[in-house]
Write a structure and sequence with these properties.
The structure holds 3 protein chains of 3 kinds. Chain A is α/β, with parallel strands linked by helices. Helix content of chain A is 34%, strand content 31%. Chain C has one domain. Helix content of chain C is 82%, strand content 2%. The radius of gyration of chain C is 20 Å and the shape is globular. Classes of the chains: A alpha/beta, B mainly alpha, C mainly alpha. Chains A and C meet through strand 5 and helix 3 of A and helix 1, helix 3 and helix 4 of C.
C-alpha cells in the first residue's frame, strides 16, 4: 500500500530551486533512508509531506489525501526535525505529556524506557539541555509516538556514538514489533545502511537514486592497479571517481562485475575493492567528476 | 564482518549456510528466525527475511507451518556440493593469480600445499572428526 | 472539536506559563503597590497603575504562544486551525481567570476602603460604574486583546520576517495618524469625545471585543500559511 505519493514537486525560493521536480512513492511499513548532502532538499521534502511547508507546484498525497490542514491525515504522522523548538520553560516531562495527548499510538512505557536509556534529565528545562540531550527528546518523541508515518530529520546530531547505536537498536526493535513507515534522513550513511530497506538519494533538489539498499550495494567497485591496465579495463564503463599516486590508479566504476569481469581483472593483476554505500553516494554527489563514459571523448 | 559492497541479504544467507556446513546448525533443527537474525546482526528485518526466503527457495531451509523455520534434511550435503563447485573460482583462481605475481609455478604451488597440509596434520592431533 | 480542546489542555500542561506567571505578576505588583501606598503621606485616594502589569504580560504571552509553541504543535501534527482555536481558548480561560480576580479583588478593595490606605489598585472609579462584573469583563477583554495582538505580531514576523513586521507596524501607525487627521479635518473632536463618554464601560468593552475578533481573524489568516 502506498502511503505517500509525490508528483513533480517543485519548491522555489527566489532564484534557487530547493526541490526541482521530485517524484517518488513510499510504501507501507518500510524503513527508508533519505540521504544527501546538507542543503540537498531533504528537510524541505519532509516539510512538504507534513504540510509544514508548501510546494510551489506539484502534488503531494499522504494516505491518499492532501495533508494540508488535514487532521485525519496529520494525526497519523510524526515529524521531529533537527533543532526542533519546544514551548518556553518546558521540561522533557511536559513535552512527552503533550506528545501523548496527540499521538493515538503513544507508548508511555517505551518513552520511559528510552528516557532511562538516554539518561535524560526530566526536570531540567529543555532550553538548558545539551545538544545531545535535546536530540534525545526529539528521538524519544519520534519513537514513542509509534505514528504510522514517522520522519526523523537527522535526529542524532549531538548524540555520541553509544547513544546513536541505542537509537538504531531501539528503532529496529520497535519497528519489528510495531511495523510502520519510517523515513530517516541522515548523512551518516554507513551507520544507517543496515537499517534501511530502501535508499533515496536527493541531490540539488533532484532524486538521484531510489532503490533497494541491497540492489545499490555491489553496484560499484573500485579497481586499483597500474594506470594503463586500469584504463584498459574501465574503457566503455562509467567512472565516477579517479585517484592516482604515481603509476597506481584507483578508479571507481559503476556497474555490476560478473564472473568474466573478475577473471579478467585477476588476470590483469588488478585489485577489486568493494564500495560502501556511503562511498558510492559521496562519489555520486561530489560533482568534482561528472560521470563520463570513458572513451566517449575520443 | 559485514562486507559493505555486497548485498546484505546474501551475506546473511551465507552466514546461515556457513553454520550449516560446519555443523553448528544441525539438520532438522530449528533455524534462527527472521527477527532473531535481524536483532543479532542489527539489520532491518526485511533484509533478514529476504535472506531467509532465499534459503527457503534454495531448499536449504523449510518452513513448518505454525512452528517455524527448520534446516532441511540433506541441506548440509547440498551446500557442500555447491561450495565444492565454486571452490575453484572462489579460492583457486585468486591463489594462482597471487602465486603468479610471486613467481611460483603451479608445481611449486602444489608442493607448498602438500607441505602445509602435513604441517597442519601433525599440529592438530585431534582432527574435527569429520570423515568426509 | 476534541483536538481543539486537547490543544487548550496542552497549553496548561506547563502551568507556569498560563497560570502561575500572570498570578505571580499580579500578586507581586499588588503587594508592591500596597507598600508604596503605605509609604505615601497622602490621605486622599491614590491610584496605582500596577494593575496593568499582568495585562501586558498577556501581550508577551501571545508572542510566546506563537514563537515557541506553534513549532512544537507542528511536530505533534496539530493543524494550524486546531492550534489557533485551542490556544485562543486557553488564553480566554486565563483571561477570564484574571477578570474574576480583578472583580473579586476590586470588591475587597472597595470594601476595605482601599486596603485601609485609600489606595486603589484594582478598582478605577470610572471602571467600577459597571460594577465588579463589568470591570472583570473589561479586564478580561483587554487581556485577550493584547494576547491576540502579540500573537498576530509574532505570526507576521514568522511569516514575513522583520521587514513584514515593520511594514505592519508602520501601517498601524499610519492608520492612527489618518484617523486623527480625519477627525481634525472634520473638526469633530467634540463629537468624538461625546461619543466616547456615551459609550460607557459596557460600550467600550463591546468595541474592544470587536477589535479583538478582527485581530483574531487577521492572525488566523496569517497563520494559515506560516511555516514553523
Amino acid at each position: 500500500m502506498t502511503v505517500v505519493e509525490v508528483t513533480d514537486l517543485v519548491k522555489r525560493y527566489k532564484d534557487t530551486a530547493a526541490l526541482d521536480g521530485v517524484s517518488l512513492s513510499l510504501q507501507e511499513n518500510v524503513i527508508y533512508g533519505l540521504l544527501g548532502r546538507n542543503g540537498a532538499g531533504k528537510t524541505t521534502l519532509m516539510s512538504m509531506l507534513t504540510a509544514q511547508n508548501f510546494p510551489t507546484s506539484g502534488g503531494v498525497r499522504v494516505f491518499g489525501e492532501n495533508p494540508y490542514e488535514n487532521a485525519r491525515v496529520l494525526g497519523r504522522i510524526c515529524f521531529v526535525r533537527e533543532s526542533q523548538r519546544y514551548p518556553d520553560d518546558a521540561r522533557p516531562s511536559h513535552a512527552f505529556r503533550m506528545a501523548s495527548m496527540f499521538f493515538p499510538n503513544w507508548s508511555q512505557e517505551l518513552a520511559d524506557r528510552l528516557v532511562a536509556d538516554f539518561r535524560l534529565p526530566m526536570k531540567t528545562r529543555i532550553k538548558k539541555l545539551s545538544r545531545g540531550q535535546l536530540s534525545a527528546v526529539g528521538v524519544i518523541i519520534g519513537l514513542a509516538s509509534r505514528a504510522e508515518l514517522t520522519f526523523f530529520d537527522e535526529p542524532y546530531l549531538g548524540l555520541d556514538a553509544v547513544a546513536r547505536q541505542i537509537f538504531y537498536d531501539r528503532l529496529l526493535a520497535d519497528y519489528t514489533e510495531h511495523p510502520r513507515t519510517v523515513v530517516l534522513s541522515s548523512h551518516l550513511i554507513d551507520e544507517v545502511a543496515d537499517l534501511i530497506e530502501r535508499v533515496i538519494v536527493i541531490d540539488r533538489g533532484r532524486i538521484l537514486l531510489d532503490d533497494e539498499t541491497d540492489a545499490v550495494r555491489g553496484r560499484a567497485a573500485t579497481i586499483v592497479g597500474d594506470v594503463d591496465a586500469v584504463a584498459a579495463f574501465t574503457a566503455g564503463r562509467e567512472v565516477i571517481h579517479r585517484e592516482s599516486l604515481g603509476r597506481v590508479t584507483s578508479a571507481t566504476v559503476l556497474g555490476e562485475l560478473d564472473a568474466a569481469d573478475r577473471a579478467h581483472l585477476a588476470a590483469s593483476g588488478l585489485e577489486v575493492g568493494s564500495v560502501s554505500l556511503q562511498q558510492l553516494i559521496v562519489r555520486l554527489t561530489q560533482h568534482e567528476f561528472e560521470p563520463v563514459t570513458e572513451g566517449a571523448r575520443r | 564482518m559485514i562486507d559493505e559492497g555486497r548485498a546484505l541479504f546474501v551475506q546473511i544467507a551465507e552466514s546461515v549456510e556457513d553454520s550449516i556446513v560446519n555443523g553448528s546448525l544441525a539438520e532438522d533443527s530449528r533455524a534462527p528466525s527472521t527477527n532473531e537474525l535481524a536483532a543479532f546482526y542489527r539489520i532491518n528485518p526485511a533484509t533478514a527475511a529476504k535472506g531467509v526466503n532465499m534459503l527457503v527457495d534454495k531448499g536449504v531451509l523449510v518452513k513448518r507451518r505454525g512452528i517455524g523455520m527448520f534446516v532441511a534434511v540433506g541441506a548440509r550435503e547440498q551446500l557442500r556440493a555447491e561450495r565444492r563447485a565454486a571452490f575453484a573460482a572462489r579460492f583457486i583462481q585468486p591463489l594462482l593469480a597471487e602465486a603468479r605475481t610471486l613467481g611460483l609455478s603451479p608445481d611449486d604451488l602444489a608442493a607448498l600445499v602438500r607441505e602445509q597440509a602435513s604441517t597442519q596434520n601433525s599440529a592438530t592431533r585431534n582432527s574435527e572428526g569429520d570423515a568426509r | 472539536m476534541n483536538r481543539i480542546l486537547t490543544v487548550a489542555r496542552m497549553q496548561f500542561v506547563n502551568k507556569y506559563t498560563f497560570v502561575w506567571m500572570p498570578l505571580i505578576i499580579l500578586v507581586t505588583t499588588l503587594v508592591l503597590s500596597i507598600i508604596i501606598f503605605a509609604m505615601i503621606p497622602y490621605g486622599g485616594a491614590k491610584y496605582g497603575g500596577g494593575s496593568q502589569a499582568p495585562i501586558w504580560y498577556f501581550f508577551g504571552l501571545g508572542i510566546m504562544s506563537l514563537s515557541y509553541t506553534f513549532p512544537f504543535s507542528q511536530a505533534l501534527s496539530i493543524t494550524r486551525r486546531e492550534f489557533f482555536l485551542g490556544t485562543m481558548l486557553a488564553a480566554l480561560a486565563t483571561a477570564v481567570m484574571l477578570g474574576v480576580v480583578f472583580g473579586v479583588g476590586g470588591t475587597i478593595e472597595r470594601a476595605t476602603g482601599g486596603w485601609g490606605l485609600n489606595g486603589y489598585f484594582f478598582s478605577l472609579d470610572w471602571l467600577w460604574t459597571a460594577g465588579p462584573l463589568g470591570a472583570g469583563v473589561f479586564f478580561a477583554v483587554v487581556a485577550m486583546l493584547l494576547f491576540v495582538a502579540g500573537f498576530w505580531g509574532a505570526t507576521i514576523y514568522r511569516r514575513f520576517g522583520a521587514i513584514g513586521l515593520t511594514i505592519a507596524l508602520s501601517l498601524v501607525a499610519l492608520a492612527f495618524v489618518a484617523v486623527i487627521w480625519i477627525v481634525a479635518r472634520l473638526d469633530a473632536w467634540v463629537a468624538v469625545g461625546e461619543w466616547l463618554a456615551g459609550l460607557g464601560v459596557m460600550g467600550l468593552t463591546c468595541t474592544l471585543v470587536l477589535v479583538t475578533i478582527a485581530l483574531g481573524v487577521g492572525s488566523f489568516l496569517t497563520l494559515r500559511r506560516a511555516i514553523p
